Amino acid sequence: MYMEMEYLGLLQKFLVVFVCCALLWKIIRYLLNLLNMEKDPVTVLVTGAAGQIGYALVPMIARGVMLGPDQPVILHMLDIEPAKEALEGVKMELIDAAFPLLKGVIATTDVVEACTDVDIAVMVGGFPRTEGMERRDVMSNNVSIYKAQASALEKHASANCKVLVVANPANTNALILKEFAPSIPDKNITCLTRLDHNRALGQISEKLDVHVSDVKNVIIWGNHSSTQYPDVSHATVTTDSREMSVSKAVSNDQWLKTEFIATVQQRGAAIIRARKLSSALSAASSACDHIRDWVLGTPKGSWVSMGVYSDGSYGIPAGLIYSFPVTCEKGEWSIVQGLKIDEFSRTKMDATTNELIEEKSLAYSCFNE
Ligand SMILES: NC(=O)c1ccc[n+]([C@@H]2O[C@H](COP(=O)([O-])OP(=O)(O)OC[C@H]3O[C@@H](n4cnc5c(N)ncnc54)[C@H](O)[C@@H]3O)[C@@H](O)[C@H]2O)c1
User: Fold this and answer.
1) Dihedral over Cα of 251, 255, 261, 266: its sign
2) Where NAD(+) is bound, by residue (predicted)?
């Protein structure tokens, strides 16, 4: 009898251990599954995808440079009829590259098809100013392009679609898009000044002979044009594990206030002179940086520059798309507040503000044409 009870007790213990192990194994498998589970694909629209920025940008997106190495993507590529064959060629190359993250590609000249179910829209297609063209003609062309694309995005894109305008005049094209897509929240429409931000980081890192990742918190204020104000008054550099202000490290105010600013402002023109083509790989890479930080967040203690809808911060009139220092968290940007603005900076910020006010009124005057 006693033996039997001991035997039953042992069996009970064995069963409890067995059930616990089975449960534990189930939990481990569930967690492993969670880790390996593929995310739902994000649909990214690139307009002007047959152009040179488009050609550099789409493989970056398909490789996970924009949204991360574990984020599958579906690419929608839009261009116009004359570029249709070239666009098909880009699609063939994307298929040939066999990108593991690329779950689908649409190449189209139909705006509605391109905008349908889009989560992120990178607007690269547009009508840039070429030599001898009247500013008004350029603006009028962009108004009609962005009016049509804004309506298509508003009607057919995902509800929380994030928009990045790259095509010049980038700030004002973004404003036109905002005007013609009133139901897209202001916070979801931005323009690219990250290239200028990265150029400023690059110039400081060259000057100090440090790696570019050791420099942070430069600011591009205003328009993505030669009136932009690259500001290093709040920037820092880390050398030998010590962080110090860029002004102190450079120790040459004259250079920072003249040559540095002019180099960043004129970098686009310098690249055109050298390449006989405008910047493409750096623009594509910066567009990825812009979206990545917006979606995944900026590192703690760092900010980036983004062209965003002004709320009146730093005395910049509300209603302009103006480049500000921003931090991003959980898919939302916020303008960095409380930075001290000296006399020199204020003059430069006002100059670029005035240009944007003028561009805005030119754009609005084309609205009813
Ligand atoms: N914001 C920035 O930092 C920045 C930097 C570099 C270039 N840019 C601007 O980006 C834009 C693209 O530059 P790129 O070098 O790729 O030019 P690109 O001429 O090589 O390509 C532009 C593409 O847009 C297409 N396009 C024109 N109208 C369109 C429309 N209505 N819908 C869809 N596609 C259309 C063209 O067919 C072409 O394939 C230009 O406006 C350029 O000035 C901005």
Assistant:
1) negative
2) 48-54, 79, 142, 166-168
